[in-house]
Design brief:
It comes from Halomonas shengliensis. There is one protein chain. Helix content is 31%, strand content 25%. It is an alpha/beta fold and 428 residues long. The protein folds into 2 domains: 157 residues, Lyase, Ornithine Decarboxylase, Chain A, domain 1 (Beta Barrel); 174 residues, Alanine racemase (TIM Barrel, Alpha-Beta Barrel), CATH 3.20.20.10. The strands form 3 sheets. Strands 4, 14, 15, 16, 17, 18, 19, 20 and 21 form a 9-stranded mixed beta sheet that branches. Strands 5-6-7-8-9-11-12-13 form an 8-stranded parallel barrel, surrounded by 4 helices. Helix 2 packs parallel to helix 9, helix 5 crosses helix 6 and helix 7 packs across helix 8. It is globular. 47% of the residues are buried. The protein binds pyridoxal-5'-phosphate and lysine (LYS). Pyridoxal-5'-phosphate binds next to helix 10.
């Protein structure tokens, strides 16, 4: 459920017709619903109820300041993977004490900045990273709170590009080695063990892999306890899927209920703070990509609807063959229906937003690509020297521009001509 619905034949974002947004801000344009973001966030906090918890929104899913600011005000923590994401969180008014830092290769300067602002925890993904963190913290006279990201080797049953909890993925410390790395962590002077972390993949549509992972983590926690190592929090990562088409992923409530049941037998579980790092399940269905049909191009074997958004704006279909619904925004005028591949202007055969879609459209019509609030704008590029699109947040009957469309001259700002060519340029 989201806040993008038809009223009298026109698709709205909350109380704003998307036609009005296209007129005011142009296309292509991302549109997010504040109410949907808030509802998705609260679904987690309400599901966990009185159990100690912290929901660390995965900034990578959608890092627009307005999104981060909204979630910060609702009490969210943040899961970051770079100092860039950290600075965004701070710029949006997020609390550094609620930030966890994931990622396989944190640089020294990134660690130093995170220590300086006092983040909650570093999710350490390897032994050398632990040693680097200890050294950086030592130089700054600090003690870094750490949680080891353990790779539990469970098959999340998701797309191979987005599965992260298998032995042959680059992420985390193999569960069998984790004990030794925890012992090392406990012996180092400038790190303090505070948690245990895992993240097994994204767009999971079943509970079983999460519960399998939890079982393996509980075995590890038991072994740590035997060695006198107690953690304050258990971070189960993100990964809960969303309905893009006909998937029926568990709701946060079902997920949390199943986890709490499984945890109930574990001694001291009521004091164990649960952390989650959801990205997609908060942002994906809180956004659409608005695009306009440029041309309809009938072909011998197929028809193309060429639109003004492309793979540089939304890469998920091209990269993962991901399916996202494509809807006409204004259905009030009569149109003939046909089957189209919806493609963009980029010079790549793989530049498509959807294939074989039955659509009743004409040139100039607006289309909305649904479920585009996560891994949409954040993965946009300037390929083909296309400025990145605008981003708009609707809030009731208001629409706020939360990122203006990139300007052409921004595309080459920071570039330079060679000295010889500058001279030629000057002489001309
Ligand atoms: C460490 C980590 N945490 C959280 C997330 C967010 O995942 P999702 O958007 O599937 O909830 C990811 C991305 O998969 C991740 O790598
Ligand atoms: N970007 C991916 C998900 C990767 C998750 C990041 N760990 C997607 O669009 O589905």
């Amino acid at each position: 459920m989201d806040h993008f619905n038809y009223r009298d034949g026109v698709l709205y974002g909350e109380k704003v017709p998307l036609t009005r947004i296209a007129e005011a801000f142009g296309t292509p344009c991302y549109v997010y619903s504040k109410a949907t973001l808030a509802r998705h966030f609260r679904a987690y906090t309400e599901a966990l109820g009185s159990h100690p918890h912290l929901i660390c929104y995965a900034v990578k899913a959608n890092s627009n300041l307005a999104v981060l600011g909204l979630l910060a005000r609702l009490g969210a923590g943040f899961d970051i993977v770079s100092v860039g994401e950290l600075e965004r969180v701070l710029a949006a008014g997020g609390d550094p004490a609620r930030v966890v830092f994931s990622g396989v290769a944190k640089q020294e300067a990134e660690m130093a900045r995170a220590l300086e602002v006092g983040i909650k925890c570093f999710n350490v993904e390897s032994r050398p990273e632990l040693e680097r963190l200890n050294a950086v913290a030592g130089r700054l006279g600090k003690v870094a709170p750490v949680s080891l990201r353990v790779n539990p080797d469970v098959d999340a049953g998701t797309h191979p590009y987005i599965s992260t909890g298998l032995k042959d993925n680059k992420f985390g410390i193999p569960v069998d080695e984790a004990l030794a790395v925890y012992e090392l962590a406990a012996s180092l002077p400038h790190v303090k063990v505070t948690g245990l972390d895992c993240h097994i993949g994204s767009q999971l549509t079943e509970l079983a892999p999460f519960l399998d992972a939890l079982d393996r983590l509980l075995v590890l926690l038991e072994r740590l306890r035997e060695r006198g190592i107690e953690v304050e929090h258990l971070d189960l990562g993100g990964g809960l899927g969303v309905p893009y088409r006909d998937e029926h992923p568990p709701a946060p409530f079902d997920y949390a209920t199943a986890l709490l049941e499984r945890l109930a037998d574990w001694e001291g579980s009521e004091r164990l703070t649960l952390l989650f790092e959801p990205g997609r399940s908060i942002a994906a269905n809180a956004g659409v990509l608005l695009t306009r049909v440029e041309f309809l191009k009938p072909g011998e074997t197929k028809n193309f609807a060429i639109v003004d958004a492309a793979m540089n704006d939304l890469i998920r279909p091209a990269l993962y063959q991901a399916w996202q619904a494509i809807l006409p925004v204004d259905t009030r005028r009569p149109r003939e229906s046909a089957t189209y591949d919806v493609v963009g202007p980029v010079c790549e055969t793989g530049d498509f937003l959807g294939k074989e879609r039955e659509l009743a459209i004409a040139p100039g019509d607006l289309l909305a690509v649904r479920s585009a609030g996560a891994y949409g704008f954040v993965m946009a590029s300037n390929y083909n020297s296309r400025p990145r699109p605008a981003e708009v947040m609707v809030d009731g009957d208001e629409a706020h521009l939360v990122r203006r469309r990139e300007r052409l001259e921004e595309l080459w700002a920071g570039e330079a001509l060679l000295p010889d060519d500058q001279a030629t340029e000057g002489a001309r």
